[in-house]
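Re: weekly structure request thread

Next one in the queue (202 aa):
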Amino acid sequence: MTTTDVDADTLVHTGDLVASARRLMRAAATSAVDHADLNRARDLVDEASALLEQQTRDHGIRAHLDRAAIRRTRAGAPWRVFAHNPLGIPLEITVEDDRAVAVLDPSPLLEGPPGLLHGGFSAAMMDALLSTLAQVQDRRVVTVHLDVSFLRAVPLDRQLRLVGRVTGVEGRKVRAEGVLEYDGEVAVRAEALFIEIPGEPD
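Done, posted below.
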């Protein structure tokens, strides 16, 4: 089965399932229950996996940032990235003209050094924020360069705020920059270059 023309109800139900899967992943990584309960949980997960694997698609489900979605996002509706992929870091991105903002309470699943956010996850979030912002400019783009500077360690017990802006458009090139901050201080800074490719935004 292909992912084309996935109906809205399937997107909603898959999003709910993915949210539950993220809760499970967090619980699996932090649980302190005894061995018997760990084994019981494993069996329940295996049962759920077998149920879901009865019928699969050739690619993962995702909502498309097509022109209709771009219009909604530019009108103020938040755009949710990785709502249907439990391995992606879910961000709800709000766009206003050439600026984008997202807020995140980080999960222990994002830990690198003890108690701190892994730098690779910081880079992934900045790429998701800035590429969404570039695409919302009515362009189908891919990231060709992302330069990330890590200025401060990012604790996992603070709310994070990501802010990005388009800094220039020249032909097929879109440049953007952004920061990840907590407690009002910039911890990560990113600069990105995107190239427009043929086809409709998706």
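The beta strands are 79-81, 91-96, 99-104, 141-150, 160-170, 173-182, 185-196. The chain has a mean pLDDT of 95.
Next request, please.
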